[in-house]
Amino acid sequence: MKLLIHDSPALANSAAADTLSSWLAFPDVRSLMVAGGNTPLDLYRRMSDRPPALPQLTVFALDEYVGVPCEEPRNCANLLRRSVVEAWGISPDRFFAVSSIDSEALASVRAHEERIRNSGGLDVIVLGLGQNGHLGFNEPGSAPDSAGRMLDLDPISIEANRKWFGGDFAPAKGVTVGLKTILAARRILILAFGAHKASAVSAMAVEPITDRCPASFLQAHPCVHAFLDNEAAAGLNGHQ
Length: 240
Hints:
The protein is of the alpha/beta class. It is built from 7 helices and 10 strands.
């Protein structure tokens, strides 16, 4: 895991945009998975200033809140449609998301992963690090070979969801691609900013690999670039 520590989130996102741009310029890159939520939004904005000239690029959403209305603009699908697909000039028919409807979510993510497998897997994935070490909605206890599924969320994730939706919603379930799909991506870019992410960063990067911190499984991956600010990196204690 390559740890790239910067003085501020802005500087980290600028460097992350450089890396992501270079990865998306590789001729063999055809698929990209992107995370919703607040953490990667500045990266996506910076990428919109230099959108990838890849008409063949297919974009997949990482996860979705379950039980939030489909038309809610802060849903992962709608957020990513605006901030990545439309902003980068990607054809709408090359974007695939997961349903937020409770009765559809499980079948939706299973079909999502099948589409990813049929396309040859993920070339690049952009992730945010959860405060409890989750990736997508793969909460602590998730196995590295876990498949796409719908699951109950930890209280810390529910509270983060409440803040994200400004108190309008506090979804307690999520649907996510599994760690097996995430860890099979050829190149992984992960972002973490702020003091509240410091313990998760330490668990991800330098502490023993364990399902108590799903992000720690990234230690065994051959190409992970972690972009951090000083506050998030504070617990690394000279390991970087």
